[in-house]
């Protein structure tokens, strides 16, 4: 009755974006997903471990931020899937793709804030770096995702920077 191995059936994708451009976009979105996941994990870690006089306000702020970031992960991964590629989903892949490095130990509250500023700015740079190929491919849905992420990361970085002034 045939082989016991099931072969994945490739269904042609014809959405008006070439295979080559979809692949280039997905490479960028995969880096964005890795940066976003690393930022999510960092923010959640800091939520759990923040101490000091700013505990309550930072604990609550970080919770709002990691919740927003968690929801964004799905948006980015599902855009990768819509373009016809598997989304990265392991820590190993995220470490290889991310521009943000994991934080060792438990920093003091102000250092947490600075690390988060740096990480939000890194995610913004990664999102912005994808626009050229997205624009060239006439990929408005991905451009919309990038614009939304840029708005959130730049605003969050500004709010966090304000805590350090």
TrEMBL record:
<dbReference type="Pfam" id="PF00210">
    <property type="entry name" value="Ferritin"/>
</dbReference>
<dbReference type="InterPro" id="IPR008331">
    <property type="entry name" value="Ferritin_DPS_dom"/>
</dbReference>
<feature type="domain" description="Ferritin/DPS">
    <location>
        <begin position="27"/>
        <end position="165"/>
    </location>
</feature>
<dbReference type="InterPro" id="IPR023188">
    <property type="entry name" value="DPS_DNA-bd_CS"/>
</dbReference>
<protein>
    <submittedName>
        <fullName>DNA starvation/stationary phase protection protein</fullName>
    </submittedName>
</protein>
<dbReference type="InterPro" id="IPR002177">
    <property type="entry name" value="DPS_DNA-bd"/>
</dbReference>
<comment type="similarity">
    <text>Belongs to the Dps family.</text>
</comment>
<dbReference type="InterPro" id="IPR009078">
    <property type="entry name" value="Ferritin-like_SF"/>
</dbReference>
<dbReference type="InterPro" id="IPR012347">
    <property type="entry name" value="Ferritin-like"/>
</dbReference>
